[in-house]
Amino acid sequence: MLTLTCPYCGIAAEETELHAGGESHLKRFGPGSSDPEFEAYLFARKNPKGVHFERWRHLYGCGKWFLAARDTATLQVFGTYRAQTPVPPPEIVAAIQAARPGWQPDWDSNPRAADDGDSAPGLGDDPAPNPTPSRDSFA
Ligand SMILES: [Zn+2]
């Protein structure tokens, strides 16, 4: 049986106390995205035999959502962490690499670096893309 430790209340909960929420760390695409991006966000999910990052809810406990890294084939749990964590913490990556030598993360290790404007050509070129309206503009 799968047992995950809730990072909020610290209880080692069995699978029957939890609710699975699917793949974690999805990049959201909303209004303004292309149809293929939005379709992939809605429907495309990884289904690996091996290391997987998932969302779980401590349904019959504190009720909070959290994230877990585990092996889908062996049920080995590498760790759990809070749902607000943008990428898996280094200690979980280290635990995975200790158990699976050669495994490499498939995300950017510094997610904030991707949001500096250089990754979306053209967006940073407009000096006032969304100017704040002044009181005079409503007169
Ligand atoms: Zn809990």
Question: Care to describe what's here?
Answer:
By secondary structure, this protein is α+β, with helices and mostly antiparallel strands. It has a single domain (3-109), classed as 2-Layer Sandwich (Folate-binding fold), CATH 3.30.2270.10. It is 14% helix and 22% strand. The protein is built from two helices and six strands. The protein has helices at 35-43, 90-99, and strands at residues 3-5, 12-14, 19-23, 51-57, 65-71, 77-82. It has a four-stranded antiparallel β-sheet with strand order 3-4-5-6, with helices on one face. A two-stranded antiparallel ribbon has the order 1-2. Residues 111-134 have low confidence and may be disordered. The chain binds zinc ion (ZN). Zinc ion is lined by residues 6, 8-9, 11, 58, 61-62, 64.
Which secondary structure elements does this structure contain, and how are they paired or packed?
Layout: E1 3-5, E2 12-14, E3 19-23, H1 35-43, E4 51-57, E5 65-71, E6 77-82, H2 90-99
Antiparallel strand pairs: 1-2, 3-4, 4-5, 5-6
The structure holds zinc ion.
Tell how many strands the DSSP assignment holds: 6
| Distinct compounds present | zinc ion
**Beta fraction of the residues?**
15-25%
User: Domains counted in the coordinates: how many?
Assistant: 1
Keywords, please?
single chain; binds zinc ion; 2 helices; Folate-binding fold; 22% strand; alpha+beta; globular; 6 strands; two-stranded antiparallel sheet; 139 residues
Brief sketch in words of this structure:
Helices cover 14% and strands 22% of the residues. The chain is of the alpha+beta class and 139 residues long.
